[in-house]
Amino acid sequence: IAHSVCRMRADALIVVDKPAGLLAVPGRGDDKQDCLSARVQAHWPGALVVHRLDMATSGLLLMARGLHAQRGLSAAFEHRRVDKHYIAVASGRLEPDAGLIDLPLAADWPRRPLQKVDHQHGKPAQTHWQVLQREPDSTRLLLRPLLLLRRRAQPLRRRRRGRLRWWPRSHPRRAPPRGAGGRARPGGRPPHPPRA
């Protein structure tokens, strides 16, 4: 791993810049073993994965230096104490300057790890969007997942896959090529079967 890819190294964590097209963690099959986590672990043995980014997504990835740090960082992600934002490009010109996506999401089982809008079984999810730049045939957007507090002090927004089309079909998102597909879930657990 080039030292230019490592953005920060501290006692508890390593921050690396993941390029688009590289897996964050190994996928299934021999052809999907080259990944950022393996490259980092080659230079810093004991570095542990805290979160993932899709193969087609670029951005900063945190890795823990030791089990204690991994537990603390994983809890921060789980309890939404980590501020995340994303940049996306939509096809066409999106004319409002900002808006709110408020749609329930569920796993798209035949096409996992993709997500789909599911008004019957989906979990509430909200994301605020804001136009950053307009081009003649596209719009660059800033996306910020929102923290919703209801009954329990649990944010209701769950993982949203960047490949989900959540704005009008008149402005389809420029979807990157599909990532590793069929990856195992964390801990090797099989996915839950779809609801009947």
Tally of individual helices: 2
Percent strand equals: 25-35%
User: For the terminal residues, how far apart are their CA atoms?
Assistant: 46 Å
What is the C-alpha radius of gyration, as a whole number of Å? 18 Å
Widest sheet: strand order? 1-2-4-3
- Classification by helices and strands: mainly beta
The portion of residues assigned to helices is 10-25%
**What integer is the average pLDDT?**
77
What does the overall shape look like?
globular
Topology:
Layout lengths: L5 E4 L3 E6 L17 H8 L3 E3 L9 E7 L1 H12 L7 E6 L6 E5 L2 E3 L7 E3 L8 E9 L3 E8 L3 E2 L3 E2 L41
Describe the protein's architecture and organization.
- The chain is mostly beta strands.
- It has helices spanning 36-43, 67-78, and strands spanning 6-9, 13-18, 47-49, 59-65, 86-91, 98-102, 105-107, 115-117, 126-134, 138-145, 149-150, 154-155.
- The protein has a four-stranded antiparallel sheet. A four-stranded antiparallel sheet has the order 5-10-9-6, with no helix packed on it. A two-stranded antiparallel sheet has the order 7-8.
- β7 and β8 form a beta hairpin.
- The protein is globular, with a radius of gyration of 18 Å.
